[in-house]
Design brief:
Layout: E1 6-9, E2 14-21, E3 24-31, H1 34-42, H2 47-59, E4 70-72, H3 73-79, H4 83-95
Parallel strand pairs: 3-4
Antiparallel strand pairs: 1-2, 2-3
Length: 102
Amino acid sequence: MDSMPRVERMDDQRYLVSAVSDDDDVQIVVEITPEVRKWGHRRGYAEQSVVEAAINYLVARQRVDELPTKLFLEDVDAAHDDFRSTIVAWLDEKKDGVPAPQ
């Protein structure tokens, strides 16, 4: 059973995502790129919330231990047509006090 990923800020634009998958520790460095940072800020989202929503989006589609050890959110956005609209919906719900789907 996979644990819920934990997200910690590393520096200005990088976050460390830690989880356990099949008893193995998994660590992923997520970089929030300038493009993603801009649209997140325009909508009033905290960067860490964007990263958390992005990881939830990805692990809903694949196992956490199958994700690359380094992720650029701009690349994730480009690779998935519904990425931005899905996490925007989750983050808007979260702002309204409704937890995002896990």
